[in-house]
Amino acid sequence: MAKLPPALTGGALPVVVIAGRPNVGKSTLFNRLVGRRQALVADTPGVTRDRKEAEAQLRGRTVRLVDTAGLEEAAPDTLYGRMRASSESAVAQADLVLFCIDARAGITPADSHFAVWLRRQGRPVLLIANKSEGRQGAAAAMEAYALGLGTPLAISAEHGEGLSDLMGEIADRLPPEAEAAPSGDEAGDVEGEEDERPAGPLRLAIVGRPNAGKSTLLNRLLGEERMITGPEPGLTRDSVTVMLHDAQGPIQLVDTAGLRRKARIDDASLEKMSVSASIEALKMAEVVVLTLDATLGVHEQDLQIARLIEREGRCCVLALNKWDAVEDRIATRQAISDRIETSLAQMRGIPVVSFSALTGAGVQKLLPVVRRAHDVWNRRVPTGALNRWFETMLERHSPPLVGGRRLKLRYMTQAKARPPTFILFGTRAELLPEDYQRYLVNGLRETFDLPGTPIRLLLRGTRNPFAEKE
């Protein structure tokens, strides 16, 4: 397949990477510096698996902050070996590495080993002695001098102690800021010329059940091993955001943890936090790629996820992954189409793309389909054309009687797009039966080419002032 455009690296923003062995508080520090709870935090070693990125403002400097998985000695083909490889890749791109240790636990052999490794990487390192609460913690932090990485900075990410000094140290150690580009006036823009500012990136979330191939798909789109993948289900625990470019501009792409049935999720488990992060990413997206394992067909949980996408008003693209492993493709495609048509009538015409994320076959078809779905989601129908269509629909099939009286439907208008939302006005319009509402929605979908996208129909009745008088 043709190589897809590479991911953005955040432009000229300096990259600050938080590294260290597991459970030293890297994700807690990440959340503190970013200023919001973005990375999952739990009292369990190894919560972070894929590196997570976010922009942060530190003493007037905007940086790209990277949270990484814990550094551990492990064979390359194991899960922990793949996590370490991801962390090493992040360190290699860093302008500054924040090497975290647990001051309460003292210097461990793993800390010493990775301190030696960091010195060999040739990257600037700031030594952080985390969990240094109170006087005893600050005294324990001094043991970190033995690592040979300079003066340790004692902080407590959990309690917010020492963070001001840390931000100052980071800002002082970063490369000098590049000079700002000349403004439009300095560049000689013509006065009165329209300022064409680029639109924000398309927000795209990849969701689905565990082991459907979501992370493999993201890696294939980026053209690099950004996410940790493997045969083990549930490898992705947190929602991870990356940027990429296609021919039409930037895309903010979010990989999410697998969504299982609620009955199979332990309320007290880390998985519940992962699922919450996935649902939040879905709600913040504009387009959602629902990834299915084509060899397993459409599961009831896939339909539940699709219904959630529709309820949130997001446009959806159905991605049939592992298509290379399907034996009877015609029968499989027909079975999936029949199931979708029957169970997701409210998303009739949903676009479907089949591919293999592992081999890359067919993946290049996905982003153009996503762009078309996004255009449909943003579509507006002219009021004149809408009401000419509405009159035709009324002539073809008159509104039913309700309480022995016929409803008088007068006109329609589109209130907004994203998703397409229409308001129907008329006497007692709020009593319009659901089957007639479906008749109108299906007509809107077919006449104005709105396949797959959620359509909202709001009813606004007009009250008769003499109805309650005798």
Automatic annotation (TrEMBL):
Gene Ontology biological-process annotations: ribosome biogenesis
Organism superkingdom: Bacteria
PROSITE patterns given in the database record: G_ENGA
This protein's UniProt keywords: GTP-binding, Nucleotide-binding, Repeat, Ribosome biogenesis
Xref: InterPro entries: AAA+_ATPase, G_ENGA, GTP-bd, GTPase_Der, KH_dom-like, KH_dom-like_a/b, P-loop_NTPase, Small_GTP-bd
Molecular functions (GO terms): GTP binding
CDD domains attached to this UniProt entry: EngA1, EngA2
Residues in EngA-type G domain copies: 14-178, 202-378
Database matches in SMART domains: AAA (SM00382)
Residue segments, region Disordered: 176-197
Bias kind Acidic residues: ranges: 186-196
SUPFAM superfamilies in alphabetical order: P-loop containing nucleoside triphosphate hydrolases
Entry binding sites for GTP 2: 208-215, 255-259, 321-324
Binding site residues for GTP 1: 20-27, 67-71, 130-133
Function: GTPase that plays an essential role in the late steps of ribosome biogenesis.
Family indicated by similarity: Belongs to the TRAFAC class TrmE-Era-EngA-EngB-Septin-like GTPase superfamily. EngA (Der) GTPase family.
Subunit note: Associates with the 50S ribosomal subunit.
Full protein name: GTPase Der
